[in-house]
Structures are given as structure tokens and as C-alpha cells.
């Protein structure tokens, strides 16, 4: 291993068992760093998007997780006042950070994930004279940067970090336009465990999930408006005349009850709720298509990587970093509109040769582009 083993403090508002691409990425990152011998301390919050309760403190080899509760969970689960949200997250996280560092004084680097965490991380890094790294995971920072005073503040905070990590070239371009130093910005790509997400016998997987004889369209993600679950429901309604075509929605979030109600009314739609990784792999393999109908600028689309690794082609929105995650050898980019989603799915259903051609390319495409070696960009950022 190059260099000494590191003690890394991560500050993030989201972490498992909350659901989402960022949470899964952090799981993968912590696992990679643990295997490399580094020690990670995570300061985070209790899940907000799901009703799952997590331990306040969790310890694994080379990993400690400290979870902060929400004093008014229902308020913060809605769209809270951004200043109240910022004050609560920053002040409470600061207290926990100093408490942790009182016992674990020696950290080598502080890694912030997201906007709220960046202010706190940089403050701690300055006081402790430690290296500071920040990851910009999504579009929100660029939306907020358009506001004059807030934009200046964000630029000042982010510019002070030693390294700024972004998930796609698109986000680097936006960061530079925001006024950040391009030399500080490093692009990394998500990775997937190819020993976990791997091809299995499709017919057996369909049988296991009671989907025998069905052409399966899968949605996996947080059940919030911008992820597009309502588009999936509407597409299911449009295609209900194709009797062996079946939609499956996996996930949790504010729209869970709406999705559940739709599944009870539509014979060609199943709501599977939240599933563990082992079962998720079975669903990916049972699926003929993964659909990612995001309405917003998706940072990258992590579920795309998982599906491709299992050999399943993708139909996804032409939004954000998604076009950097797949090309026409393994998927189809579309506008996130009901008509286009339905037409694309029906076209692949009726032209099995096209779907088979896409399927043949998926696994090798994933192994080539989304291996664990992608994590080295982040590990390198911790050192220089």
C-alpha cells in the first residue's frame, strides 16, 4: 500500500440505512477504505427519507458511525426553511464532532459530503489544521449558487477545500462556471461490487419472484417526485393491454403509499417495497429492462451500474450525469415523458433482437467502467 494508513472523519447528512445513491456510494467507499486498512469515523443523522430507526452508535472493524437524531423529524422531512435546516445540521453536527474528536483526536483528513457538511468540515479542518476534501453529489449546490449572497458564500467555502470531488464531467464544468479552481476539482466514477451484482439465471429469478412468463420492467430508487415513480405508474397504465408485460417498483420514501395504492389497482404493477441487496440482485436479474425516469439532473444514476453489472439493459432519462453512465451499446436515453417511456419499452418488447444485443454488452461494459479501482481517485485526494 502506498503511504501510511489514514484516519478519516466523514461528515454527511445521509447514510445507511437511509436509501439513495449517495448512501450506497458511502457504503461502498467505507468498505473500500476499511479493506485498505484505513479507519473511518462517520458523523451523520438518523434516516429521514424512511421510517427505519438506526443505532445511535455503530462500530465495525475500522469504522465507527455516530448518528444524530432529529428534534422535529416531521418538519425536516418536509421542505424546511433552508436557514433553519442549515443552522440545525451545522450546530448539532459541530457539537458531535468536537465530542468525537475529544476521544479520537488524531484524524488525518476530513471529508464532507454535501453542502451542509462542507461548512462544518472546513471549520474543523481549519481549527485542527487538517486536510479537507468535499464531494459535490448533486445539483442543489449549483442551484443555490445562483443566489447572489449564498452563491458567494458557497464559492468561498468550497474554494477553501484542498480537493473538490465530483461524480461526472458535467459537474466539473458546472463547478468551474461557478468560479471554483479547476485544478482542485477531481472527477471520480462510482463503482460496483461485481462479485455481488452479477448475472444469474433469468428464468430461475423470475420464478423465484413469481414473475414467470413476464416481461419485467424494474424501477429502483427513492420514491420522491424527481425520481419519476409516477411516470412508471402512468406507463404501466398505458401498456396494460400487453398482458405479459409487468412493472415492479422497489424503494421507499414519501410516495410509498401512492405507489402501493397504484399496485393494488393495476394488475401489471407490483410494489416490492424496500429490499436487501441479496434480493435486489435477484430482481435485477429477473428484469428485462431497468427504467430510470428521473425528472431532475441525476448526478450519475447508481442503479444503472448495478443493473448493467447483472446484465440488464437500461432505459433512462437524458438528464444530468446519466449520459456519462451509459451509451447506446447498453441502454437507451430518453426524455422523461410517459409517451416516450411507454413507446421505448414497447419497442424493446416487440424487438427482442435489439434487447438481446444490448444485454450481451452489459456485463463487460460494467466491468470495464465501474470497477473498484475507481475509488483510488478518492483515496489519492486524501493524501495530496
CATH architecture of the largest domain: 3-Layer(aba) Sandwich
Strand order, biggest sheet?
Answer: 3-4-2-1-5-6-7-8
Number of strands: 14
Q: What name is given to the CATH topology of the largest domain?
A: Rossmann fold
Low-confidence stretches: none
Beta-sheet strand percentage? 15-25%
Q: In CATH, what is the homologous superfamily of the largest domain? A: Glycogen Phosphorylase B
Helix vs. strand class: alpha/beta
Mean pLDDT: 89
CATH class of the largest domain: Alpha Beta
Number of domains: 2
The main sheet comes to: 8 strands, mixed
Based on CA inertia axes, which overall geometry fits?
globular
Fraction in helix: 40-55%
Question: What is the succession of H and E elements?
Answer: EHEEEHHEHEHHEHEHEHEHEHEHEHEHHH
List keywords for this structure.
18% strand; alpha/beta; Rossmann fold; 6-stranded parallel beta sheet; 16 helices; 384 residues
What topology does this entry show?
Layout: E1 7-12, H1 21-35, E2 39-45, E3 57-60, E4 63-68, H2 73-77, H3 82-103, E5 109-113, H4 115-128, E6 131-136, H5 140-144, H6 148-159, E7 163-166, H7 169-178, E8 185-187, H8 202-208, E9 215-220, H9 229-238, E10 245-250, H10 256-265, E11 269-273, H11 277-286, E12 289-292, H12 302-309, E13 314-317, H13 322-325, E14 331-334, H14 338-350, H15 352-369, H16 376-383
Parallel strand pairs: 1-2, 1-5, 2-4, 5-6, 6-7, 7-8, 9-10, 9-12, 10-11, 12-13, 13-14
Antiparallel strand pairs: 3-4
Helix pairs in contact: 3-4, 8-11, 9-14, 12-15
